[in-house]
Every structure is written in structure tokens, then in C-alpha cells.
Amino acid sequence: MNSNFNIENFYYNFSCNCNKAQKKTFSKGQIITTYIQKRNQLCILLKGNADLVRYDLNGNRTIVEHFSKNALFGEVFYKVTTNNELLVEAKSKCTVLFYIYDQLKEPCTHGCEFHNTLAEHLPELILDKITELNTRIELLTQRTTRDKLLMYFSLISTRKLSKTFELPLSLTDLADYLSVDRSAMMRELKLLKEDKMVDKIGNRIILLYE
Amino acid sequence: MNSNFNIENFYYNFSCNCNKAQKKTFSKGQIITTYIQKRNQLCILLKGNADLVRYDLNGNRTIVEHFSKNALFGEVFYKVTTNNELLVEAKSKCTVLFYIYDQLKEPCTHGCEFHNTLAEHLPELILDKITELNTRIELLTQRTTRDKLLMYFSLISTRKLSKTFELPLSLTDLADYLSVDRSAMMRELKLLKEDKMVDKIGNRIILLYE
DNA sequence: CATAATATGTAGCTTATGCAACAGAAAAAA
DNA sequence: TTTTTTCTGTTGCATAAGCTACATATTATG
Fold this sequence. Notes:
The structure is a homodimer of 210-residue chains. Chain A is of the alpha+beta class and 210 residues long. In chain A, 35% of the residues lie in helices and 26% in strands. Chain A has a four-stranded antiparallel β-sheet. The first copy, chain A, has a four-stranded antiparallel β-sheet with strand order 2-7-4-5. Chain A has a three-stranded antiparallel β-sheet with strand order 9-11-10. In chain A, a hairpin with a 5-residue loop joins strand 4 (50-55) and strand 5 (61-67). The two termini of chain A are 26 Å apart. The mean pLDDT of chain A is 87. The structure holds a DNA duplex (30 and 30 nucleotides).
């Protein structure tokens, strides 16, 4: 999170008595939402982990984004332009808040504080999203699988402030996130271990360089 | 452009008497700006074409974004997180308007209409940027050079409403934009011609499928 | 205009990556 | 618990894509 505003601080205060928000719970594997044109949904992941997944015509699966607690998603942040399917899948038990953007940005007639504070901070939250997207682009423009892995590890390491961390994604999902073949990625991971660049115990990564 | 607001409509009215904006002209090849942390510049390309270019530690050059008339850019849309150099290079004679985001978002004390209208429409403009970035991500997640080319052509074709169009980038730049090797891209382009998928006369592309 | 600089187009060789297939480990479901 | 499913780890093979080099075309520049 780059902005000063943090949803978490008042997630516990969440008592929305306005009818603009809908709160739902999903179990692992369920589809939280499918992106459709002209709806402009804005969702907040209050609890759990989820993936925005795209299936293209060649059958390739791409993890477009990985969401953890307090992440924002929905059509507001991804205008549907192509005819590929875009699904948000729950990776664990999830609690999600649903808004419609056009309603959210108007002041709440019920004086709902959560609603109003969220609307007020929307511009910064959207700018944070832009930063995330640019980071993702930087990751995807890495030319080799090795460079993609190293940059990905470096990003997580910086975020966690530690050279040791658990992968937030399974290796299968990581391959789909980096847009590379899984077995090729596994091979590269082995080479990175042989070159003493990283160590790996289960899903725990240890960066050895620098 | 997805939003209803279009800068072009009042670009001609531009007569900013507030001291918040700076207007400058650049000739081809000049550096318009270098992205630096914590400045939050917002720039509008009033005239010309420019590229946001990144040079990484391996010497790879990536065209992160290509800007044409009325495009918005600057640190507002790209928080500098890594230590790669980010430059905006003029590809032709350019006229650029510079703002600092924090000043822009406040109402103009000089009653400058351009300033105020721009500030008012900023949220939509930023959401448009998000759409662009997502499109770019979709492009970069294409697994093969062929698929990248076909998707890129398809995007331009949709934008121009025509199966025939001039490439907005040179082929050398296109390779850096798609994050592939230029010679490999040329080879694939030749194969696409042989397969009667596209035709190509100079920098003019003709889509033959469907 | 001449000359320099940059872009395009092509080829040979090498390597990285995708694909298919499978075995064992781990996790989920019955 | 047992069974089923999903994930991890690995290999051989085929091929896409990177790298180098160079010739020609096109575009800038003095």
C-alpha cells in the first residue's frame, strides 16, 4: 500500500447501514464474480485470498492479479474490452464487499461513514492500483524466466522486508502469473538453486544474493 | 479514450494564466522528462509523439508506453519503485504541459478554466489509464511472439476501425514494446505473411483474417 | 546534394522455453 | 481412516526465440 489511507484501520468499524453495499462470503474454489461490461462493480476483499483469472481462446490460463486481504478489484479497475473470460476465484474462504462505482462515488444518503470515507479516498486507492499495474508490466517485460523469477522474488522480499518468505502463490499459479510454462519454471528454479542464487524449502524462498 | 471527457475539445482554449502549468516544446530525440521519486509530475502531450522508455541493468530497452496526442503521463501514473531509469523521449516535435499533481488537484486560485476542468475530470482520466495498463498486461501475457503481434495488430485495428493501418511505432520500437527480440519478430512477421494472416507494405499493415 | 545515421530485412547458429509424460508428495474429500 | 484430486519435481524431445552479423533501404543532417 502506498497511500496513507488504509482500509484495514476501519474494516473493523464496518457497519454499513446503507443499501449500497453487499457483503458475501465464499468458500475455496467458488467464483466471486465474473467481469462484465458496463457494470462497474467495485469489490473489497475483506478476508481471504483470490485470483483474477483469464482464460483465452487457446486454453491458456493467466493469473492476471493475485488479491490478498484489503485488495480492491472489479470492473472499475479493469474495463472489459476483449471477449476473454475474466473470473475472480476464491483461493481460500473469502469475505467480499460489493459496491457499484457510480453509487459509491456519490455521498451516502444514509450517512454511512465507511461508504463516505471510502469514496473520499478512492482517488489515492486508484493511483495505488496504477502502481501495482506498472509493477506487473515491469515483471512481464523481463525477457527470461530467470529474470521474471528473480524480480518476483525481489518484489515479495521488499514487501515483506525479509530475504526469507513464503510464496503467496502455489508454484503452479506462479507460472500462470509470470506467463511461463510450469515445468520450464521449475527447471529454472532448480538452476537458480544450483547457482546459489536462491534456496527453497517447500514454498519458502530464501534469497542468497547480495 | 473511454471517458466522455476529451482534452482535445478544449486544448484549443488553452490559455492558462495560473502559474501552476508550464508549457514547453521539444524537438525529436530530446528527453522530455525523467521519472523521479516523490515529485508526482503530471504531463499532457499537447502535440507530437513520445515514448516512455526503460533501460534495465542488462542493457535491455523497453518501451513501457507509447504516447500520442493528448496522452497523460508523469510520475502520477507510474510511481518509481525500482532503480531502473525511466525516460520520456520525444519521437517527433512535441509540445508538453507540465503540472505537479498536488497543485493540480486543488482548485485554481487564478480561476483558470483549463486547470479546473482538468482537475475535475482527473478521476475518469486515471481510470482510462488503468484500462490502458490492463490492455498492455494482456498483450504481454501472450505466450508467443506471433500471438503478441496478432493481438497488437488487432488492438490498433479496433482503435482505427479499419483492417488497414499505419503502425504508430517503428518495427524496432515495436519489438521493444512487445518485449521480444527484433530479428525474431521480423521472422515471425514474415511467417505471418506467408500464412496469409497479414500483409505488410512498408509500415502499413493489412489484416487478412476473418 | 552528399554523407551519416538509423531502420529494415534476412540467415546461421545456439539456447531457452514449451510440451508431454510420469512418479511421488501433499492436500482435499469421502 | 482411505481414496481421490491436485501440486511438485523431473526428464527427453521439439521448436520458438535469442544472439550475431551483415546487406540494403530509408531517413536525417551537414
